Amino acid sequence: MHRETIHANHDSRGSSQFDTVFVSVGDDEDVMGGLLVARVRLLFSYFDPYSSEHISCALVTWFIHPDDDPKRDEVTGMWKVCPERDENGQYPVQVIHLDTILRGAHLLPCYGEGFLPEEMTHSNALDAWDSYFVNQFIDYHTHKLLM
Predict the structure, then answer these.
(1) pTM (2 decimals)?
(2) FRET label pair with 62: which of 6, 42, 74, 133, CA 20 to 30 Å apart?
C-alpha cells in the first residue's frame, strides 16, 4: 500500500508549501498518459444536500505545455511544462474533485545561466522559473506512470 501527503499550507512566516500533483484528465496516451500537472493551492470540502455527502475538492493552478506543443525534451527525455497565466499575468485557478488527483509530481526548473539569488528558498522556487521539467525519474511509480 502506498500513501502520499499533499500539502497546501500558507504559513505566515513566509514558508508556504503548495505541492504539485498529477491530475487524471482522460486516456490520451500521447500526452503524458492523459495526465496534467497542477499546483494545489487549497484543499477543502463542502456538503452536497442533494446527495447527502461531503465532496472533497482542491483549488489548483495548472502547468501547461509550452506553446501548446506537448513533447519530451530531446536531451533529458522529460516532459516540459510552464505555469499557465492569463493575459494579465495572473495564475487562473480551478476547482477539481480530489478523486482526479493521482499522485504527487516532482518538477525540476529549466535552469538558465548565472547564479541563483540568495533569497531563493524552497517555498518560492515554483514561482521563480518560466518552465520546468516533469521529473519521471524521481521514483519507480512515477517512471512507470510516464513511460
Answers:
(1) 0.85
(2) 74
